[in-house]
Amino acid sequence: MKNLTLLFLAFFGLSFTFVDGPGYDIGETATDFELMNVDGEMVSLSDMENVKGYIVTFTCNHCPYAVMYEDRLIELHNKFAPMGYPVVAINPNDPQVQPADGYDEMKNRASEKAFPFVYLFDEGQHIYPQYGATKTPHVFLLDANRVVKYIGAIDDNPRDASAVEVKYVENAIMALEGGLNPDPQSTKAIGCSIKSK
């Protein structure tokens, strides 16, 4: 049956592309979104002014890896938002599967840690599959045109910030600032799996 389908497509001159997997690849343009922030306001990437890019980070409340990276996300935002690269944190987890990641719990955590960045709720889990996020945390660095420039981990040591040797996201931003592509452009995200039904 598969051979017949391929013959049919070839006969009528139809072309098709097999997709390697879900989510964005380096060089693809991410679509905008509108998600609820912990302050009750709806936020989209296009709402943000004077940006050169976006540090889109899928993260959550409960995951130990996400918690270990909270202070580093705050530092990233405080260092790079003034340069035009704000952190855009998104909680992708279904609160019915992981109640600690509900919207009220997000508000409480953002208040406790005084997050200086937006912390958005992917209600209905529509956005994280578009990106191809699989872990918390999982970073997608976009340029001003929402072109994906880097995908992966924040740095090379989730457990100990003082022992980090390679700051992947920082290095990627500095490459963009220098008119270069990040090297590496992707790394393996280390964290908890995203919780969905």
- Using only CA atoms, what is the Rg? 18 Å
Order of helices and strands: HEEEHEHEHEEEHE
The proportion of residues in beta strands is 15-25%
CATH level-two architecture: 3-Layer(aba) Sandwich
Description:
This protein is an alpha+beta fold and 197 residues long. The chain has a single domain (36-193), classed as Glutaredoxin (3-Layer(aba) Sandwich), CATH 3.40.30.10. Helix content is 27%, strand content 18%. It contains 5 helices and 9 strands, in the order H-E-E-E-H-E-H-E-H-E-E-E-H-E. The chain has helices spanning 2-11, 64-80, 103-113, 127-131, 168-177; strands at 35-37, 42-43, 53-58, 87-91, 118-121, 135-136, 138-143, 148-152, 192-193. The chain has a 7-stranded mixed beta sheet with strand order 2-1-5-4-3-7-8, covered by helices on one side. The longest helix has 17 residues, at 64-80. The radius of gyration is 18 Å and the shape is globular. The model is unreliable at 1-20 (pLDDT under 50).
